[in-house]
Amino acid sequence: MMKFIPKAKTHTPSGMMEYAQSIKEGPAVILINGGSGPIEGWYKIFHELAETATVVAYNRLGVGGSDKPSTPQHGETIVTALRQLLAEMSIRPPYILVGHSLGGLYANLFARQFRDEIAGVVLLDSSHPQDLGINETQNPFIKRINRILGMFDSFSLGRKWSEVNFVEETVAQIEKAGSFPDIPLVVVSGGKKPPMMPEHVMEIRANNQLDFVRLSKQGQHIIAHRSGHFPQLTEPDIVIRAVLDCIQMARKNLLRE
Question: Which residue ranges does UniProt annotate as crossing the membrane (predicted)?
């Protein structure tokens, strides 16, 4: 049964944004959805994490009750909007960023651009900058279908500004943002191959997941063997433990400072 997550809205310079929060101890855990994912996607972990930590989940522009975007939703725009939301909510750094899928790119960029605000990062089967090259390994028919599907976004003003149309720009911003900070980093990777995914694509993604772990000397890797792309839904206990471990490591680091 899905657990209800109470939501609210607030104005930010980027527009009205919908969010959910639970105030406890810091550092605050910021849940960053995958592409077009809603707050409700965290229902199996939100309440458990909220028992011991401040937790924030939110809908990016164009999702749920948040305003529709009117500008390109690339990484820098999304990170700026998130920081504005946290400021409006009076949620102060440092933060633990938890990024799923495409949300992992934004966590990656946020940590590089505002390293002093980040105490730790958890990546949940996160998109990797080098995942962009996977389409080039597909057969010509699949590549053509992907291009055709992408064209449909331009027919709608709302979808025109969708984040999925600006992934390459987001990746370029990550590459220019400097090194990833030496902070607690827990990488949770789905170990179950999706039925339609070719073996060689799964191998590329697995290697990219390992590359994440090397971003920080404090990096750790967890494989959710019974999960595909949504470990927070299929193996929530693993994800909860990963986030709690990251919080514990971050708190120890903060005490040393």
Answer: none
